[in-house]
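Troubleshooting: if your tokenizer reports a length mismatch, compare your output against this known-good record of 438 residues.
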Amino acid sequence: MSTNGSPRSTSYSRRNFLGLGAGVAASAALAACGGGSASSGGGGDKLKYWDMPWGQPAYNKEAQRLTESYKPAGDLPGATYQIIQWNNFSQTFASAVASQTGPAVSSGGGFQAFQFAEQGAIAYADKLVAAFKKDGTYDDFLPGQLEAMKTDKGYAAIPANLDMRVWWYRKSLLNEAGITPPTTWDQLADACRVLAKKKLWGFGTGAGAGNNLGSQGLVMMMINNGGGLFNQDGKVDCVTEANVEAMTFFRELVRMGAVDPAAVSYTGDNLTTQWKSKRIAMGVYTPGLDVDTGDSGDLDVLGPLTSPSGEKGVLVYQNNLMMYKNTPSQAASEAFLSYYVKNMKVLWTKNLIPQLPVLKSIVATPEFQKLTAKAKIIKELLPVSKTFATKSTQLFGDLGSVDSSQPITQFAQTMIAGKADPRAALITLQKALDEIVK
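Known-good structure output:
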């Protein structure tokens, strides 16, 4: 985990909720993280809102102010704010839910709501979505975001922010090499050959301890080629021709010197250091590379790349806000969540959160539009983005067990080493993931 609250941290665990059941019996762990008593989700006479460190400490300070400024109507309870650290957050939530000492509303891992929903702990948000349709809030969400929260039983959560995997490049290095920012895979390969001769990396990545950007970058390449890890029914489906073609292309990039051989063991900090030292000219990262490096002026985002199959696509994670059945009242949870969504704009206008907004009204603010790379991601890449569940049209709990799991990390390390047969590596991944989700 990064300790600076940067978006790089999201690539490690923010979307995931691994080992959901592992901490169920560990309710004592809550004492160490201030989980509260055995009172209801309202924390006595107030509703409990648990939030993650989505940015620098100033983010949580503002989110707490926003929470405590909530003035409920009638006799509905107010809300309290509590930070839940990413370290061991899955056990924290699981044990709290099991002991009914958890929050009424929370942010958390992007697949968390779907896992808890499958366990019967989530209060579906259908009534709130209906209210959003009446008051116009529904139309303020970016296309497809609310729909992504819908399951066969209802809306498991409300979208809060977006985390994507996108191609970045350092403008000065491409200019010095005479390279025009690529728009196709063929152009990407040509650029990597030129950069390799200059001892610059054209596919900056890493798959060391705690760094999942390596595996996520490869999944993004599969998606870019019309593939992905899951089929339309949400079943693991790794060994497809689209995936084989994407991984064969990546292996060729490795062999031409586009990937640092040491990347197999790069931590997140190692990878950021390579970007800062200008050894990486292009690479896959979160929307917050400019924040992590402190060098926004020389960094930009590539537009959608066209693969040999004619497909375009990047990987998106939809972080969300969820309601739990353990609450002072469902009406209280819905009222607070409605308030929070309608007032969370300040988190972006003050540039306190590195992830991307889900509301059109926030995207349109002058403050966000000044963040030119992020604005470009929303405009050009979000329309071609696809979730980790691709090709399934629904998110589901097993995604949290697969993303950032040991098998997919090992797959990334194998591919980065550049010696494995892509089809054989995908077959190995398929078998391992089948064991996880069976």
